[in-house]
Amino acid sequence: MQDIMRPDAVPDGSSQVDARRPRATALRLRVINLLAVTVPFAGLVVAIALLWGVAFNWVYLALLGGMYFATALGISVGYHRLFTHRSFKTPRPVAAILAALGSMAVEGPVLQWVAVHRCHHQHSDDHDDPHSPHTHGAGLWGIVRGMWHAHMGWLLRAHPRGLAKYVRDLRKDPLVRRMSQLFPVWVLLGLFIPAALGGLLTLSWTGVLLGFIWGGLVRIFLVHHVTWSINSVCHIWGARPFHNHDESRNNAIFGVLALGEGWHNNHHAFPTSARHGLRWWQFDVTYLIIWAMSKIGLARDVRIPSRDRIAAKRCG
To answer: For a tag on the chain, would you pick the N or C end, based on fewer CB atoms within 10 A?
Structure first.
């Protein structure tokens, strides 16, 4: 598959005009990608500003931020680094809490999420990848189709067959099976908590409704699109310090918004690492949480690649 992000990847004998086409395509792709990422968030910020003091204030900002942080960590610490990649171990009550918080993000039961993600790693950016943006044809239209598919279009299709084989180990764990079966309960709880807190903090039914909207529905919207951007944006736009035989990339924006998950090229180079931000400046909130857990006995056997192994795999 030709790398659309490498402007110098021009077939032998191509003219100078042909050589400029991949550059123009890559530029258009980055512009479209940037707009798709920033415009919805800008719209949300404008809506918050316009509604401040009417249907939004510090109470609802705290509910939105708190629920976002808790459920995003449920995905990054729990679903991803604990259950999918086994990058650390934790006591079973903590594992149960992380599974519940991840479920509150409404991205599917833990067994389903893990199966899809492990399938993605095995087939990253080939035709069996459930959500690659690079298998939908050439040209601008193929790029747009690929971005849509990788971001959320894949969710509207039937899941690939044979996903159960990717979670045979987890299916043997009664706790994980039970937490996965109770997915609808955790989803409802994730909506009930901000609604109840909104009512208690404002002593009003309006607070219940607005807590439900901001800490529930809007928070789910934000977590979804940040998580989905790892599938789309982080396979299109960013740096590639490691050759991983795929198009995974480090994207600093989602390194922050996704609590460290945006250092995606690093992750594909070292999938079982609990730390994705491998440079001092690559802020990785999720790893900091795991590190803090390890200091108080809530995480053990935390897996991190050695400096020599990182250096050996780095490009150039």
So the answer is: C
H helix runs in 52-76, sequence order: 58-73
| Mean predicted lDDT score pLDDT of the chain | 88
Show the CA angle centred on residue 115, arms to residues 222 and 251, nearest 5°: 45
For the chain, state the CA radius of gyration: 21
* Tokens 């943006």 sit on residue: 133
| Contact present, 110 and 176 (Cβ < 8 Å) | yes
| 145 close to 136: Cβ distance less than 8 angstroms | yes
The encoded tokens of residue 198 equal 């909104």
At a CB cut-off of 8 Å and minimum separation 6, what does 136 contact? 142, 143, 145, 146, 149
Q: Specify which residues 314 forms β-bridges with.
A: 242
| Of 32 and 285, the one with more pLDDT | 285
| Longest alpha-carbon distance in the chain | 73
Q: Is 131 helix (H, G, I), strand (E, B) or coil?
A: coil
Per-residue pLDDT for 29 more than 80?
A: no
Task: For residues 98 and 33, give the distance between their C-alpha atoms in angstroms, rounded to a whole number.
Answer: 31
Q: What percent of the chain has pLDDT over 70?
A: 88
Q: Residue 151 to residues 84, 224, 237, 263: CA-CA distances in angstroms?
A: 20, 10, 13, 17
Mind listing the pLDDT tens digit for each residue in 84-139?
Answer: 999 999 999 999 999 999 999 999 999 999 999 999 999 998 888 999 988 877 77
Query: Rounded to the nearest 10 degrees, how much is the dihedral formed by the CA atoms of 148, 152, 154, 159?
Result: 180
Non-local CB neighbours of 269 within 8 Å, separated by 6+ positions: 241, 242, 244, 313
Which residues, at least 6 apart from 315, have a Cβ–Cβ distance to it below 8 Å?
A: 240, 241, 242, 243
Question: Residue 197: CA atoms inside 13 Å, Cβ hemisphere, count?
Answer: 21
Structure tokens at 267: 């992750």
With CA atoms as reference, report the closest residue to 40 among 203, 235, 257: 257
